[in-house]
Amino acid sequence: NAGVTQTPKFQVLKTGQSMTLQCAQDMNHEYMSWYRQDPGMGLRLIHYSVGAGITDQGEVPNGYNVSRSTTEDFPLRLLSAAPSQTSVYFCASTDAGGGVREQYFGPGTRLTVT
Amino acid sequence: GENVEQHPSTLSVQEGDSAVIKCTYSDSASNYFPWYKQELGKRPQLIIDIRSNVGEKKDQRIAVTLNKTAKHFSLHITETQPEDSAVYFCAATGATGNQFYFGTGTSLTVIP
Predict the structure, then answer these.
(1) Given pLDDT bands bounded at 50, 70 and 90, which one contains residue B54?
(2) Nearest CA to CA, how far is A105 from chain B (Å)?
(3) How much is the average pLDDT of B49-69?
(4) Which of A41, A45, A101 comes nearest B97 by C-beta?
């Protein structure tokens, strides 16, 4: 199993550009989430999904879109990048079987917006 | 939504001493409380978790305690080693169980 994978690992964007951060998991987990991590602020939930075709907003959804067409993939789209979106982005999938909610994180994408 | 507060933000201990990190949460419906360790430049990794129907859980040198009445939970690391140096995050799942709310992290340094 590859677990949770993310691409790219690093990205530099100019203000106003758009891009998609890719996330995939091969553990057949229903739940997937996107977080951003900023210094001193922990991980903040952007969007999450409880299954294919179902997505919902987290704490900081503005400026981001998601879709979940398959169980495996959960891409995050930045519509018009802003310097405030400079951050490290983590995708995670959750094993919710039997009520356990162990969350597995991808390796992260470091995004810089200039 | 849920609000998780974590203290202290930094913690230095001598090798072999114990370390304690404390978190409080606001939503009494939260039912799952994981702790993650994140080394520099790496992804967060689960080290221990506890469910709301359990008061304490131990795994070798790591233990977590939960006080549902007071809405706080703590991570205890005994016999600390230099490789325990990392940032530790607590989290709570909130009422729906579908969202994880994280504390702001504790940077632990174990001094050899």
Answers:
(1) confident
(2) 6
(3) 93
(4) A101
